[in-house]
Design goal:
The protein has one domain. The chain is 92% helix and 0% strand. The protein is built from four helices and no strands.
Length: 111
């Protein structure tokens, strides 16, 4: 029997069905892989954006912290130069006297 004569229309249809199923399976796998790749890419993009935002916030916070430290250092240098120990205590005592001299209603609104 010749191989060419053994090919029947039913065999051709079965082969076509297998090819179609294989093609459909390949397309489905490609789509799943593409969906995973897109999701991974989106996750990566979100993570990168979050990292960039966090870096900006940290840089801004560092600048603020440096400014505050500079202001505190400047104030301490100024106080140290202009107010020796007894002068600091005198200024605190004067502030307490002024606070005590104010009417009670002013003090309660302040606290």
């Amino acid at each position: 029997m010749n191989a060419f004569t053994a090919i029947t229309p039913a065999l051709c249809e079965a082969a076509d069905d297998r090819i179609e199923r294989a093609a459909a399976d390949l397309i489905a796998r490609y789509r799943r892989g593409l969906a995973v790749a897109i999701k991974h890419g989106a996750d990566q993009c979100v993570r990168e954006e979050a990292r960039r935002c966090l870096a900006k916030v940290e840089a801004h916070a560092k600048r603020i912290e440096q400014r505050q430290m500079f202001a505190a250092d400047t104030a301490l240098v100024w106080l140290g130069r202009n107010m020796a120990g007894p002068r600091i205590e005198a200024a605190i005592a004067a502030g307490e006297r002024r606070r005590a001299a104010r009417p009670l209603t002013d003090r309660t609104t302040e606290e």
